[in-house]
Structures are given as structure tokens and as C-alpha cells.
Amino acid sequence: MASGKSLKLFLRLMRHPGTPESIGRGVAAGFFTAFLLPGGHMVAAFLLAILMRGARGTAVLATWIINPFTIPFIWPLQCWIGSFIIGRPLSHKLIEHLLWNAVHTPSMQTLGELSVELIESFFAGGALLGVIVAVLGYFGTIIVVRRHRARLAGRKEFRLNRWKTEGR
Prior knowledge:
Helix content: over 70%
Number of helices: 8
């Protein structure tokens, strides 16, 4: 079940006045930058949405697909997938260990422990997952927004017809 905060975000997305395509481009920009960049993805999503003529606020909201609750699952998977893309597979245990240290004890020493392969893997995996999730987010958002707006239009028409037949 969705929490109250996520429901509010969903409703805000559905009520956005832009076209479904504009909203979808915003979601795609947010999803892509969230996976590609470890930080600063809100600003990057905002700028990318401007370039793509997408909904800027929606782009910023969509970056929250990567959050403190999803990072422990997504970043290790992203690095693991990326390690295969760059041709130097890393073990999942090593990735988790290095990322755990980097997130929980940030310092120049832990940053230095991150290998070039891990950093390359992060960006390669992030680019791949970012593209996949952005495409799915774009088309999924268009479908959901169109259905929501059609449902609202149907309700409005029903109320109008009921009002006319009741003779008010």
C-alpha cells in the first residue's frame, strides 16, 4: 500500500497541466539522471528536462526513485551490471563492501579505496539502467496520465449529464 506522501506525489504528477508527453519526458529525465549520477541529479534532471522540453518539476520528483531506501539495492546491482559492460566482472560481495564503506564512512581514504573499475562500472551500469528505466518511465507515464485524464473527463461528463437530466 502506498504511503500518504507517495500518494500525494502521484496525485501531483497526475494533476500536472502539461501534456502527457511533456510529463513523460520529465519522468524520463529524472529517472535517467538518478541512475547515472551519484549526486546532484536533481539539478541535472531539471536541466535535462529543459533540453527535452519536459516537465521540470516532474523531472525533479522522478529523481527520488533513487533514495536512501533504494540505494542499498540499486547501486550494487548497477555496479555489478556495469562491471560486465566494461568487461571486468566484479563480485557482488566486493561491490557491496566498497559501496557500504563509501556511503557510511565518507572520507578521502574510502574514496581512494574505490577502484577505477568500480567507478567505471557504476557509470556504465547507471547509463544502461538509466536508459531502460527512462524509456519505461516515459511510456508508462504517458499511459497512466492519459487513462487518469480520460477517467476524469468521463466523470465530468457523467455529472453534467446527470445534472441535465435532473433538471437543475
